[in-house]
Amino acid sequence: MTAAHVTDLDRRQAARVAQSRAARGEASTLPSNDSQAAAKAEPQPKPRNGDRWATYNAFIDHIAPRLTLAERAVWQLMFRHTRNGMCETSVRMLATAGGIGRATADRALRQLCEYGLVRPVWKSRDKSKASKYAINPHPDHCIGRLPTP
Fold it and tell me: 3-class DSSP state for residue 97?
């Protein structure tokens, strides 16, 4: 791994490892120079497919009972169309695939954004074009924002 491929996250992780070793009194195996330490740091592992199931299971177990049927349908459709944490979809597609009206799909999407389950990344001004949304990978962290069952 060259220094050009090192991310800020790798540098911060290398600094934390060096600090924790110094606090424990262990000899540091990493050089004191930050760029060299970051270059030798292990890269972050990519998320596994199992993480996707963990997100879905957390949604079904903790979140779904507190949502309306339209909100459940919209979230599940968005989750199904998510690639690399991003969902590119339109309200029209959500309404058609979910068997609900456009106004209902739009209202459900706004509620999901308010609850923190979905975050708009880019909104199209043209109603027929898709917008981009980021799905929260930890939906159980949003329980405090949800209505009580």
Answer: helix
Which positions ≥6 away from 104 have C-beta within 8 Å?
A: 70, 95
pLDDT values of the chain reduced to their tens digit, one per residue, 149 residues: 445 555 666 677 777 777 777 777 765 554 455 555 555 555 555 545 558 888 899 999 999 999 999 999 999 999 999 998 899 999 999 999 999 999 999 999 999 999 999 999 988 777 666 789 999 888 888 888 888 87
Pick the CATH number of 49-145 from 3.40.50.300, 3.30.450.40, 1.10.10.10, 2.50.20.10: 1.10.10.10
137 three-class SS? coil
pTM of the model: 0.63
Q: For the packed helices 91-98 and 102-115, what is the interaxial angle rounded to 10 degrees?
A: 110
Residue 20 CB partners (closer than 8 Å, separation 6+): none
